[in-house]
Amino acid sequence: MLLAGAVCTVRSSKGEEVLLGSSFTFSCIFNKQCTKLIFRNGTQIKYIKKNISKELSVNIENITEFNTLSCRCEGNPEPCGIDIKPGYPPDIPQNLTCVQNMNSHNVSCIWTTGRGTIIDTTCQLRVHGDLHLGYRSIMNSTGFCHSTFPIKSSVMSQLVVWLNVSNTLGIKTSEITSGEITHLIMLSPQNNDKSRLNISSLHPDTMYNFQIRRKINHTVGLWSDWSQPKRKKTKEEAPDKALDVWYLQELKPPESKSKCFRIFWKELNISDAKGKIQRYNISVLEQKGKSNSIIAVPPSRNQSICCYNCSVSVSAVNSEGQSPVKIIQLRLPGLHTGLLSHKPLNNHSIALFWPKFDIAGTEYVVHWYPVGNIEGIQWIRVVDTTAHITGLQPQECYQGAVTALRSSGPKMATIKGISSWQSAPEQGPDPELHWKKTESSGVAWSEIPQKKRRGCLKKYTVYLMDNLKGDIHNFSVDHPKRQYVISGLSPRQCYNLWVTAWTDAGEGPRGSVLPFCTPLDSEKMLSLVILAGGAVLLACLILLCICQFSSVHRRFLCCCQCLLPIIPDPANSKCAKTYADDQVNVWKCPRRLQEFWGQLHELPRLSEIKFYLDQWDSSVNEEPDNVEVEEVPYPSICTYIKSFSQESSSSDATQFTRITDIMEDYISTHGAISGGEEEDEYEKGERSLDEFEFFPSTHSPFLEPLVLTGGKLTLDVVKIDCSEFLDCT
């Protein structure tokens, strides 16, 4: 095949349409001498410099897709080329189907050619007796051909046709096909005629789609296409099947004397419910005849009940009625010692085995639920000692039990750690320190979330690393225990601790690391010292409280006063006598005498103990008469001066002496009032007074001021009685 251009002429040895996967030669004949180039889909595949020959060829092998081949001279952008289309020749026509619409005189036929040819293919249908040479059409991409022709004679009852398909790679003709025209007639799927058909065996409260199609009769014509669907819902009916009910024992509240149970029931399927379930009626009937009714609303499928020796009935209710009542006796099952075993069947099911509980034919209830999610309980009823549990989730841990329903009472055997497939945990637990001592510590750790366990936990491993030595010790703890006491630790040593979890598939990663240090022994001693100090402080507080009683206070003060040192009376000093009547020059005396002087002049006004003395003459040698002393008791000290004498001939002048509330730095003593010696020099007296500054002050809360008396007294006239020293009133 030649295609001419301005620069060159191209040629394909097999034309533009070639067999898919074939090979051919592509050639270019140039009109002038030039450097020749050949391109395939825009990519250069051959290069020839100027030579005598004007023709340039290339072999194309195994072509499987559309290609564009072109040639041009170097330096000249204008090409010449050809498009190559690979494809298949047609197959023999088959599967002819012709249809005549009842309201039309045209017949439509459709057939296939086996497979799509990829390249353009022409279809032709010829009718026997028709002067028309044929009815042509183009095959579509899926390999179907379609033609329509008229039936020109009403008396034509037989249709004879043959088919022809062709393309550049080949041509195929079918055998002659004949048939009755009446068999080709197809009715339309819808018309205005109405007909009625009763359909039975439908489910209540169910939505259905209805479609129809038609033909002339059972033996003539073709079926029409399906009509558009119409939706219709059936009415509800009362449920006619009882619920499947099971129960488990629950922990009863502390204040309840009854036993508590959790009642479960299975939801009815659509065919059994026969409508939307609106509620569940639960009745509790105790042995004494007492009845209690409970209403549960979907989606709830369980109810907690506390009763004693009772039975429970459960039924489902929809808009049309109530299902048959299911009655179950609530009895505590006895425990069976037989062991249950299981083996995985696949990722979603296991086989469960157990020994025979009772006589053959006993019904068993096998229940199971995910650990920690009793709401997801499921159960089945079997009469064998084997059960296949299905619908399990991989990497999920289940627990359950097998209960034998015996006339003498149910008997149960439990099983834990059921899993169809598991792997090592995804997450580790987080530890925390509960207490620590010098040589031991208590540790606990958190639960791993169910979704992170990836199966059934079997044990934990506690790891302890000595930070000083680098040694790592481990301790195994069975699940579900989550605490451990570590002993053999060293005082004042730091450690790192972490915990891992195990399933049957292996060990999971560690959780968070817990650093801690053990305390010193000295800290223990410190705690004892603190405890002892607290005890002493408590004792002092108790003693202070006791001292608040007046009798105890007085006795204690008396003891303290006997221990006071002897302090001379500043009033007997030389300076004080010299300026006794001269208040103007009293400033020449030491500061403490000045203070005493000021206090002395205040005595008459503030006195609390009054002494009534007569003036007496010192020249008289007679013993003075005893006089009465009026004593005003001071409430918080002991009275220790019983009596004293003064000459009767003395004047009636009355001298007042008081006990002052506050004395600054010195007090009067027995030695001071006994007198007899005076310091001769003023400086010596001043120095003597300054030496008394170290003596205790009467500001002490345990001391109270003593009695001051003016003048000189001898031991003969001052009689001190200590017989009541410890018996103060």
From TrEMBL:
PROSITE patterns: FN3, HEMATOPO_REC_L_F2
GO CC field: plasma membrane
InterPro entries for this protein: FN3_dom, FN3_sf, Hematopoietin_rcpt_Gp130_CS, Ig-like_fold, Type1_Cytokine_Rcpt_Type2
Xref: SUPFAM superfamilies: Fibronectin type III
Gene Ontology MF: a single term: cytokine receptor activity
Keyword tRNA-binding assigned: no
Boundaries of every Fibronectin type-III domain copy: 425-521
Membrane-spanning segments: 525-547
Domain of life: Eukaryota
Membrane topology, as annotated: Single-pass type I membrane protein
Subcellular location, principal: membrane
Keyword Glycoprotein in annotation: yes
UniProt keyword list: Disulfide bond, Glycoprotein, Membrane, Receptor, Repeat, Signal, Transmembrane, Transmembrane helix
Alphabetized SMART domains for the sequence: FN3 (SM00060)
Cellular compartments annotated: Membrane
The family this protein is said to belong to: Belongs to the type I cytokine receptor family. Type 2 subfamily.
Name of the molecule in the record: Interleukin 12 receptor, beta 2a
Protein's organism: Cyprinus carpio carpio
